[in-house]
What does this fold into?
Amino acid sequence: KSFAPGGVTALTARAASVRQGGMSVVAPAVTAGGISALALKSHALVKASVFASLIATPAEGYALACLALAAARDPPYDAITAPTLIIAGNEDKTCPMATVDFLASAIKGAKVVTLTDVGHWHQVEDIEGVAEAIMEFI
It folds into this structure.
């Protein structure tokens, strides 16, 4: 399984944009699209942290990551035998709940923890929730 053609096109275009204009071209949109509505509205430090992380990322490295992701194929998830924790944000548009549900069913015994009012940047948006999920898992 791989990305739908639209996803491949979007990731390829993002790589080209970053190569042409640098991280400042995509950082605002990726920040706004990646964090929860609550963080956008009420947590300026979360928003600033995510934005700073993106701006500090080398443009070519980010572009290459986009292209690698566009070309990625799913591994044989049923071959995973290690204990697996999936931490999800209920507002994550990058890895929506349908994807989390697929992974949880494909990886035998996977445990899912869904964080409320959290987007894609779990470790920044809900430090305590991520730490608690990991501590309970290990």
